[in-house]
Amino acid sequence: MNEIMRLLNVDPLILQALREDMPGEDVSTNAVMPTSRPGTVDLLAKQDGVIAGLDVFARVFTLLDAATEVELLCKDGDTVRPGQKLAVVRGDIRVLLSGERVALNYLQRMSGIATYTRETVKLLAGSGITLLDTRKTSPNNRVFEKYAVRVGGGANHRDNLSDGVLLKDNHIGAAGGVGNAVKMAKAYASFVRKIEVEVETLEQVKEAVEAGADIVMLDNMSDEDMKAAVKWIDGRARTECSGNVTRENIGRLREIGVDYVSSGALTHSAPILDISMKHLCPVDGEATP
After folding, report:
1. 75 classed as catalytic
2. 95 and 190 assigned to the same domain
3. Over the stretch 187-200, which tens digit does the pLDDT of each residue have?
4. What residue spans of the chain are helical by DSSP H?
5. Would you say residue 288 lies in a domain?
6. Cys-Cys with 270: which of 71, 110, 116, 127 at CB 3.0–4.6 Å?
7. Both 112 and 139 in a single domain?
8. How far apart, in whole angstroms, are the C-alpha atoms of residue 102 and residue 95?
9. Cα–Cα distance between 98 and 88 in angstroms, integer?
10. Could you confirm whether 238 is annotated as catalytic?
């Protein structure tokens, strides 16, 4: 996650999450821990998976108190096992308690996406197909979720609407057809931008390629039609398959011949990875109140 920490300022997003969870005081923590007291807590995996988001997890606590220390015992991309200690957090017990849920929400969500992605990537191994994510992400969490896809071995499609030209069915309808949509995009967008067009029929495939589309997305087409489309395109454009692609059905796409497969399920359907913070105690070894 250092990559994101360098390139993007994610602190405002994390702070917003903390404000959502603690708009005033943490009543429960302040009730049992009215004054500062140093302590430690362990971060433990509770199921098999791929870990992702450790730096985000740590940043939650250091934003609450810069003196908090987080000792990471593994790194993003590592496979973890039930019972494995992933980190030790040391600091004011009030910070450990107040930051716990937000920190775990990020880590569990990101690790779940990385785990689901890696399992899906394995199903395409040896096919030459690149697995892509989509913009079907949680609001204000896209940067974290797309990072998790990369940790799991997938690749990112465009990050946002400003990132590239993708003409979908409603764009095509607004423009009056595939050919006209591509023509208008070429006239508007910089020549360095690739133009991708979503198509649903073989006739639209031909229109897109003849209009000069760089990438043709075969959306919700039958396997037979996709094979026919790839054969007809014959390398004149890159090809992408999309439409209700999940870990359970992606294997059938290995033989289609497309360059890319995009799956919204990587981010909208991945279950969280079960991770918890346990064994909280003061540094003097006494039990917490």
Report:
1. no
2. no
3. 999 888 999 999 99
4. 2-7, 11-21, 27-32, 54-64, 93-122, 142-151, 169-175, 178-188, 202-211, 223-233, 265-268
5. no
6. 116
7. no
8. 12
9. 16
10. no
Q: Look up residue 213 and give its DSSP letter.
A: -
Establish whether 136 is a catalytic residue.
yes
d(CA 154, CA 117): 6
What is the per-residue pLDDT across 160-208, written as a single tens digit (0 to 9) for each?
999 999 999 999 999 999 999 999 999 999 888 999 999 999 999 999 9
Q: Identify whether 289 is part of a domain.
A: no
Q: Clarify whether 198 is annotated catalytic.
A: yes
- In angstroms, the CA 23 to CA 12 distance is 15
Task: Give the count of alpha carbons within 13 A of 90, CB side only.
Answer: 6
Range of the domain at 138: 121-268
Same domain, 161 and 68: no
Residues 120 and 71 sit within 8 Å (Cβ to Cβ): no
Backbone angles phi, psi at 48, to 5 degrees: -65, 145
Tokens for 167, please give them. Answer: 């003409």
**CATH of residue 275:** 3.90.1170.20
Residue in 145, 207, 219, 240 annotated catalytic: 219
CB 283 within 8 A of CB 38: yes
Give, in order, the Cα–Cα distances in Å from 176 to each of 35, 171, 261: 67, 9, 27
* CATH number of the domain to which 202 belongs: 3.20.20.70
- Sequence-distant (6+) residues with CB within 8 A of 148 are 52, 53, 109, 110, 111, 112, 113, 114, 117
Write the single-letter amino acid at 97: L
Active-site residue 19, yes or no? no
Catalytic residue selected from 168, 186, 193, 227: 168
pTM above 0.70, yes or no: yes
* Residue reference for tokens 């990587």: 266
End-to-end CA distance of the chain: 35
Which among 46, 90, 101, 183 is annotated as catalytic?
Answer: 101
Among residues 76, 145, 198, 240, the one annotated as catalytic is 198
| Closest to 236 (Cα-Cα) out of 209, 217, 260 | 209
